[in-house]
Amino acid sequence: MGTMNLQFWGHHRIVGSPREIVIEYGRILRQKGFLPPNSRSRKQFVKMSEAFIRKPKLKEMKAVKVLIDGEAGNGAMLPRPIMELYETARDFYVYVEENEVLGCCALHIEMENLAEIRSIVVKSDQRGKNVGVKLLQACMDEADDLGIERVYALTRVPDFFLKHEFIEIDKHKLPHKVFNDCVRCPLFPDCDEVAMVHDLRPYNPSAFEIGQRSEDDAT
Ligand SMILES: CC(C)(COP(=O)(O)OP(=O)(O)OC[C@H]1O[C@@H](n2cnc3c(N)ncnc32)[C@H](O)[C@@H]1OP(=O)(O)O)[C@@H](O)C(=O)NCCC(=O)NCCS
């Protein structure tokens, strides 16, 4: 079946088969409040396909941990304690097929205008099927809805983000606060992660960040 590429509300782009587009369109309508979350139409969508990108159920966070920790073993990301994953469950989107969590991605808010894309993983046998890009898009749509100006990722796969309209910046230009997690990393402070950013709207560093820069300049 052919692939379609439709754009809704300016920034919602849906790429996929007609069936995937119907499902994704339903998700957007529910997210925008045009459909109630448990409407009959949602059940009809469920019948059409059992693959979704959606917010996780708490009981699915153990599967999210397995995905993340699997990549932590490869050095792609930090392992996340399960309690932290429960606390940040609302940051996540998951890709679920036949009730199995096959991918995840999180949008973590750092400050008024800045959020991080983190923990993006697709199960190894599901890669190359556009799951990663759809998870990324779900997080970017949410960032846009929240009015976030800049989204960044600290990554060892910059090419994936380059393909999706991120650009590389000097990671020292990110506010110090975003490196809080890094002290837990075995590679700290000799980290080889690259900072990638995508500006959804003009980025104005917050007063907090400007204050931090002036302190740096003084030392
Ligand atoms: C990175 C990752 C999430 C991509 O997921 P995926 O489902 O395989 O990606 P998609 O199928 O959606 O790929 C979309 C596009 O990105 C490209 N892409 C995917 N992985 C890439 C990579 N590692 N490097 C460069 N480009 C990549 C694809 O070729 C595709 O390009 P196209 O649209 O021109 O065909 C997945 O490879 C993964 O889980 N990697 C291990 C964890 C990891 O390193 N995460 C990033 C840490 S920040």
Explain how this protein is built:
There is one protein chain. By secondary structure, the protein is an alpha+beta fold. The protein folds into 2 domains: about 1-50, no CATH class; about 50-219, Gcn5-related N-acetyltransferase (GNAT) (Aminopeptidase). Helix content is about 35%, strand content about 25%. The strands form 2 sheets. Strands 3-4-5-6-7-9-8 form a 7-stranded mixed beta sheet, sandwiched between helices. Strands 1-2 form a two-stranded antiparallel sheet. The termini are far apart. About 30% of the residues are buried. It binds coenzyme A (COA).
What distinguishing features does this structure have?
single chain, alpha+beta, seven-stranded mixed beta sheet, globular, binds coenzyme A
What's the helix and strand layout?
Layout: E1 4-8, E2 12-16, H1 18-31, H2 40-48, E3 51-54, H3 61-73, H4 82-87, E4 92-97, E5 100-111, E6 114-122, H5 131-146, E7 150-155, H6 158-162, E8 167-169, E9 194-199, H7 207-218
Parallel strand pairs: 6-7
Antiparallel strand pairs: 1-2, 3-4, 4-5, 5-6, 7-9, 8-9
Helix pairs in contact: 1-2
Bound molecules: coenzyme A.
